[in-house]
Write the structure tokens for this entry.
Amino acid sequence: MGNLPTREDLTNAMERVRPYVHRTPVMTSSALNKMSGARLYFKCDNFQRMGAFKMRGAINAILSLPTEALERGVATHSSGNFAQAISLAARVLGIRAIVVMPENAPRIKKKAVAGYGGEIVLSGNSPQDREAKLEAVVAETGATFIHPSNDIRVILGNSTATQELIEDVPDLDIVMAPVGGGGLIAGTALAAHYFSPDTRVIGAEPAQADDAYRSLQTGVIQPSINPDTIADGLRTNLGDVNFPIIRELVERIILVEEQEIIDGMRLVWERMKLVVEPSATVTVGAILKEPETFDGKKVGVILCGGNVDTSNLPF
Amino acid sequence: MGNLPTREDLTNAMERVRPYVHRTPVMTSSALNKMSGARLYFKCDNFQRMGAFKMRGAINAILSLPTEALERGVATHSSGNFAQAISLAARVLGIRAIVVMPENAPRIKKKAVAGYGGEIVLSGNSPQDREAKLEAVVAETGATFIHPSNDIRVILGNSTATQELIEDVPDLDIVMAPVGGGGLIAGTALAAHYFSPDTRVIGAEPAQADDAYRSLQTGVIQPSINPDTIADGLRTNLGDVNFPIIRELVERIILVEEQEIIDGMRLVWERMKLVVEPSATVTVGAILKEPETFDGKKVGVILCGGNVDTSNLPF
């Protein structure tokens, strides 16, 4: 426990991000409660600024920098929600954000980053290309690198979603979050640990991107090998900052098949009238595939985001 | 003015439906505010029970019946949201609901009605067939006919959406609702008339189903001729109960083209993360096509429903 961030680290993050993020609503669904046998409380970070919880980590990370670093700006590599989050957070806080994106990133993603004022630097498509380009950017500009998920400042920012949920819905038996890079589930677990210690923390991960599951089983970070899932936010690797937190505070990870993710997405769209991305419904898939785990329980579910290309849906 | 329902009729309806409907949230969108130049307040009745405002009118209509009528149940003809609303309202209140639906109604609609416990009676596909079947049902069962939109009890129930909106967001310059059968815009206008008299009421109607627009222009109810719009909830005719209210209290109706409806739908889905049906975004299309009308204004928008077949989207 010695290396965990402290309760004060979490409350400080909450104070820091509060003026810059939406306090998102918690929603319920009698239809999904009936189907699952659980009482589900959905924390709707699809309604967060730029459409995902990533805004929380980006704001907290930037606000944690010393003044002189702010002047030189921040840099990251991402083709997903964190690219948009760091761009918007930097603009809101009046600093520069440089985003290294692979040349083959979807045009719609590049457009969104540019729309939030992020400066895009293209790299080759391999992880090595991307990291080499990022190092060159940092060397040239003096910008501070902020990793999308394996950064304690980002994890602490992410924890504020669950801090808010616990304030609004006390006495949860279980809180669930999807697992990709590990930054959200780590923040979720820290918030539960300090503010609702009897709440069990369970992750949900695509079976076709199961590196976190395998890492928890073996106790050692396992590489992600050709992750191939519709939940595009969950294809990334665990890191050495978030994995120790996950190993200590997350009870288990449930693996979810592609069709279960899609069925969960359709349920949330049709029954809850919420636009959420597939990464957000891995949890719903997990709840419906394991009714015995959730039956009769009061369960918090972090809906991580709603950025989806509506012209390219799986149904 | 002598024939308008009274303020007390509206407050009574509010008291009557309150225990049985969700008080739906009001949401805002910085993206849509920026695009429109207005300050938009969306009343999210897509989150209402059964997914549309129709629940309000159905509950109020049933609760307005004398006890002996309750025992014989209610009947309606609808293949849309009112069919689901009357079925669910009747089930909640423990009475029988019979729904006359045309044989060619989509399977998904029949399934939804049956799912809420409505008893489906099939009719031929013409309006004449439908009305003949309804009359036969009423004669046989003694059920009370409740029209989906041209019924003062339904209109008063519908008014509660705008009553809530006005409580939550005072001092609206304009309130907008879509116009189909006229039951929603009539209820909206009544609520504004009594509880926010300085608020102007503007309707939005598909150009391809413009009977209400033509009726307002001529002062006489005009028939709907081959309405052909994606906004399937708005293909119905005005009636003699709601038209006088509309003529007296609605300032004007803006006509909206099909592509504008679809563009509005996509905006609400992608930027607001809300699943809404095309009938709900005719208003958004109207606001974006007439910026001069809405610029700088505080505008309430009734999002009427979110029941949409996600496997059959226009984008």
Remarks:
- The domain at 7-53+151-303 of chain B is CATH 3.40.50.1100 (Rossmann fold).
- Chain B has 14 helices and ten strands.
